[in-house]
Amino acid sequence: VKGQTMADARPPTALHVSRRTVIAGAAGLLAGGGVLAPASAHAAGRGRPSSLSVEQQAGQRVIWSYAGPTPPAALYAAIRSGLVGGVIFFGENLKGLTRQQIQQVTRSIADAQAGSGVGYPLLLMTDQEGGRVQRLPGAPGISQKQVGLSADPAGTAKSAGLGAAQNLLDAGMSCNLAPVLDVYRQDGDFEDQYSRSYSKDPVVCGQLGAASIGAQQSLGVVTTAKHFPGLGAAAADQNTDIGPLTLPLSLGELRTVDELPYRAAIEAGVDLVMTSWATYPALDRRLPAGLSSRTIKGELRGRLRFRGVTITDALEAKALTAFGDTGQRAVLAAKAGMDLVLCSAKDLTQSQAAVSALATAIGTGGLGPGESDRALERVLGLRGRLG
Asked: So what's the pLDDT on residue 29?
């Protein structure tokens, strides 16, 4: 989530609780059946796709966001109605809150979901990449570039991943929209200016990304590789949050450089892959990656054989201006093969519009019942592991 990430970027600060407390909190979740406890994707008593209304089926595929430090009553109402698949937290949602207050927020959201009858925990997520791009104070603290430049990059990537996961779990969150697998090209370019890329070497990016992913997922945190097929070639002023972006890379360069880290991530069993909103003519001359079935179904699922859950970048990105309103964008993304749509404008009407449009498309057969069911199965299967 690039524009929101830059707006909320802040230097890492000390964690409010000790590392021992974080680890103890994670152990308590394991013992108490919290978000770390493994569970079958279709455990007894859980709502299966056939038992959910069309609106609820749509809602499970939408990530909501809100403004300010207090979740609004309308969000809780939507959660209790089974219309929410997850919530993303930004800096303004957490800034000024103590760790206990953050825990109270995430607990109250989880409690609302427990009363929804859907039967699957929400994905409570944030961007905890490290360095300047992280929402919670504390681990991992160091940026991905610092990880890549460290004396023991693989060991540092693993420890940073463990620290991020423990931090998220202690805050009551279950999903990290990290690591970034973009392979930057030049010092100071779009990803490097914020130290978000591990390296200029795609093999190194893949190895360190896989180490981070393995560490986080070992603690039960849902982890994301982003931004497929790669934004590393973007120049400093090329940002899909502020306008369209075309990256005219050859198919050979895309596959041997930008996509290469995703092979390692997929082999590591990464849960989520986030697509970019850039257009890659070598894959699809007309559509941004997150709206392109050639990119998602053909390249990511077909050639790279990814079987996990796909998620869009921010649906409000200015790169999508030519592709209609929120509802139209959500449906186009779902048709292209996106399982989750990320509504990160911090405006509940955006999420409501996405749910409404997806429900209409599902109800009228616009998404194709078989494909829609498979997307929902993937999402609920992932969330079913959260306990």
From this structure: 30
pLDDT of residue 48: 57
Tell me the residue length of the chain: 387
pTM for the complete prediction? 0.88
**Tokens encoding 157:** 């990537």
Please list the ranges in the chain whose pLDDT falls under 70.
1-50
CB of 358 within 8 A of CB of 62?
yes
Per-residue pLDDT, 50 = 64
Map residue 1 onto helix, strand or coil.
coil
At residue 368, the pLDDT reads 83
Report whether 196 contacts 143 (CB < 8 A). Answer: yes
Encode 15-41: b = buried (16+ Cβ within 10 Å), e = exposed: bbbeeeebeebbeebbeeebbbeeeeb
Q: What does DSSP say about strands 340-342 and 309-314: parallel, antiparallel, or unpaired?
A: parallel
Task: Please report, as a single letter, which amino acid is at residue 224.
Answer: T
Number of Cα atoms under 13 Å in the Cβ half of residue 9: 16
